[in-house]
## 1
Amino acid sequence: MNITGEQFRFLCDLYSSVAYNCPVFLIQIFGENNNVVCSSKPENISIDQFNKLISIVTDLEIKKDGNSEYIINLEENISTEHFNRIKVELVYNCEFSVFYILSGVSENIIENDVLDKLLLIKKCINERLQYEETINKQYIETTSNIHNVIYSTNVTGTHYYFISKSVENLFGLKIEDIIKNKFSLLRKVVPEYFKGYNKFIKKLKSGERSEYEYQIFEADKKIRRWIRHTGTPVIINGRVERVVGIMSDITEEKTILNKLEKSEEKFRLLIETVSDLIIVLNSFGYVSLINKNGAKSLGYKPEEILGKHFLELIEESNKNNTVDAFQKILSSEEVTEFEATLLDKFENQVVYDFQATPTKDDNVISGMLALGRDVTKRRQDENRMIELNTKLVEANRLISIERDRAKQQLTVLEEINKLKNEFVSRVSHELRTPLASIVGFAETIVSDEDMPKEMVVEFNNIILTEGKRLAKLVNDVLDFSKLESMNFQLNKKDNDLVEILYLIADSFKSYAEEKEVTMNFEIPEAEIIILADRELISKAIKGIVENAIKFNKPGGRVSLIVQDFLNEVEIMINDTGIGIPEKELPKIFEKFNKFDTKTGQTVGAGLGLAYVKQVIDVHKGLLQVKSEVNKGSTFIIRLPKKK
């Protein structure tokens, strides 16, 4: 056992207080390098004499031969007028250090009261050491009953000053064997951990507290045990003298951790394999986990979504419904289903059908786990079907109305029959071509199971294009029929024409780029208010702009110029397209009139410009056209402004 530095300084001060002219002081020699700590040097001895004296004492063999007292005859260069001999008395000898009392002996007799004080001090030291011995026994008893190994060793870990008895159970080695054989513990370390163990020792040597986890062999060299080894350097006078620390058995901890990691890996693989959106929110609604495929479906990487609030991903008009759904989830023990519209990275709306349940820690709600399936396409198909059914009902009703009117007058009936037959003939012709393509390509896909994927994609695109063409034709027919209905009511309101035209311009940018046509818009910034049905006016102007782009040439140009007059506004749409033959201009706004100066074949059902003319007329406006073949056309629309 060792006396602390504080205790040693106390004893030194105590001796110095009774030394008087007689050199009496305490010295401690400790460590492998015989480091020396002692009380203050007496005033009646020089530094050289003091250092020489310490050197002589350090060389004594008191620790080895067991003698408790030496009388040293001093050399001339050490002795003084006060003394010529030094008595060296062994006070305490332990494994770590040796304590001596040095007192001068001269011809003069030391006063009795000084001697009494010295004896009293020696008695105090012995009593203190006996107390320390008792504490040491209690310490050993305590550490022996702790499963962790407590140790004190030199800097390199090759010599143990103290090691608790638990080491015998943990390493299977006797304490005396460990002390005798400095490499006994090191041989237990599995070789693959030597490199890390050396780094651990280097940190301790540098005075840095360190910790290292490694495996050791059991007796049969097959079973391995995990050890967590911590060390704290003991620094004296700026130098690392020894290391104290703890070695703990963490085999069970590692086993549990390994099982947990494997379980987490299986869970992670499950999450990453699922194509649906899996998302975990914390108690504040922030995303704490999202699977890779789910994030990808929204155009993100998982790390880009982590930490975001779930409502940041929700489309604005859908946020209130989502909050209501959250409240229902958190108040229910069962799985709750709700639908939410999310915005992807590119601001596109994606509809998800979610099934969610609250998560709990210690029976307290800590968040929410939700599984979402993308149902955007399904919802679009459902809405489209509803829309088509509505139009079909309207179409049937219109046919029924026309049939009833035809019964009233034979002349009207004949005219209607004529128009109907002409309409059916032309529409049938327009329907036949896309339907034939749709049926033909669909049958080809169904009949050929080995068809390359690229060809299947190409055929599907053709089917989609032709389907859209059919839908547009049906829409045009229905819209025109609705406009001609006697019961049709305009929804006239105050509208800013400038705003309408800017929206139209934006809607045709991508189509113009696709057709390689340059678009130019000269629209005033100040608002121009007209009293009009916004939907009809927009569609009429769009019809003219669409034709200007569609029947243009690559590299062609389309211009839309607006002039604001006192009582009316003029919209001029110019193009550099194929133009219209002069003989066709008087009939251009008639129903079912169509032509193609380039191919000689008719295109469309012939309702587009007739519809535009009808819309402008019901708004008390004027529609004119000027055109030259292969040079282009100019359509002029004049509409009254609101007074």
## 2
Amino acid sequence: MNKIKSVILSLLIFLVPFSFFQIFFQNLVQINIVYVLAFGALLLVIISFLQSLITKKFVFQTSPLDIPVLLFLGAIFLSFFTSTTNKMQAFLDPNFGLLMIISLVILYFYFSHNTPGRPQGSPLQILSLAGFIISSFIIILSLEPTKGIGVIPLDLLFFIGFTFMYSLGSLVHSFSEKEDAPKVVQICILIIVSLALGISFIAFSKQGVLFPSFSLSFKAVFQIFKTLPNALLGFGIDNYSSVFNRVKDVGYNQTNLWQFPVSIDRSTLFHIATTTGLVGLASFLYLVISLIKKIKQNLSIILGSIYSLFIVIIFPPSLLVFFLVFLSASQTGKNNKEYVFNLSESFSFYSYVILIITASVLFGSVVRYLSSLYLADYFYSQSLVGIKENSFKKVYDNQQKAFSYNPYLEQYHLGFARIHFVLAQNIIEKAASGSAPLVFTKESKQMLIEAIQTAINENQIAISQNSKKADYWANLAQIYILIPKELQTPNETEVNSPQTTALTSLKKALELDPNNPAYYFQMGQILLSQKKTAEGFKSIKKAAELKPNWADAHYQLGMLYAQKNDMKNAVKELEITLQNIDPKINQKEYDAVKQTLDKIKSPPIQAPQNEY
């Protein structure tokens, strides 16, 4: 059984970095690596339990960083049960979820203990081998003239950097040995990894990946001090976006990130503080300080650990970041204490039966539960494949299967709502015929009603699971805005109209995300359609103020000024519009705005009327 555990541990270490190397394994099985770690950790526990029954003794070891690791896990549990809104979403979060952390903690204990079940060779050596193989593939694929290496994920770049640091330390360490073979091997490894790191860095730089500023991270952290519970336990795992929306400013709105919800901090350390509070931050810092104190081994481990800590401070949280931290922590010391608990001879056959049945029920329940969660994740990922293939049936069927296995995840309901929103849009487009009223057949009208109602229901379910997400309310508003007049009842008043309901949803979104220019712009459009010109003008103006480089908002504002006969401000806004339209990309739009501006600047001269 020790050999089986050794193989499992080695495979888990080896597979983690390959999960981020999508260009080579994208056509193989689609498996979420979090579930691989979870099932692997569970399998190790089951094997250890069976081994204890066979040997009639439970062997337990303690290592130097056990207490800091367990304290950090405990802090996450506290935040999870007290501050988290949707516990299922937080449990499965791929960047800082409870399932991921539990799996890594279990693996930490197997990596750190001096048992026969440990992999042959250091876990960091196995990880370094994976890095060398991936680096070789990167170099080879970079020479491919048609495909190249494709998109380089940030985690893959992190991992190549980690391999470089570890290899550098190993090379320096090899010079202390008398034989030349280790030096030659380490030099070859370092050359390959260095080339791959350079290629990956250049490719990643060309992708133009942006991060929110550190100033916003500081502002988000300080939000926890507004109440004592949040200060101690944070806002909860997977609730970071609700905090970030409160602090983002005009400067952020002028970046290319402004339309995308931010679910993680740009710094792992700040993310931990914001989501788990001072308790989580203190426990993690205790782990980091203990790790620094216990690094007494060779230079390769020291450099690898320092690199991991650097990533924690500078870059966002992810599975790889925490994997490197826990793996580094497991290699800090070998002064383990062993405790052996022998089963007494009085432990009868009846006692064994009860123990085995209890363990079977517990392990079986966990396996069944994790399997359901994995199948839901698998079918949902297949629905995304259906979107790429433009197959509505594949999308619909797979999302329904995902619901059947896990109905508690917000993203599943939002995805189902969006699919029906697009379906409703397609039906409306087919019914459109110029400027005439929409013409629906009996079947198309019924399909449209069902699509819109399903979209509303699914979006409302997502809101009920976590009402702190501003974009959920904005999505609901979009659905109500889509409802055509032909579906509205004749006796429907403005108070209970879809547009008014959409306004209510947008106001709720603005309570959660007060500096979002898109929400103000949408509100302005609705208010203008309701002939509330003054209120609509204020909303459009607010949108332009919050995003000074948004051409659409300034154009709309300019036209409103023109309607008010305020030509000076109309010209000003249209000139700003032109400054924010690239004629190389949107030539037609640029020409249209310029033509409008020229007409306002030089209105046609009217001939004088004869007076009789």
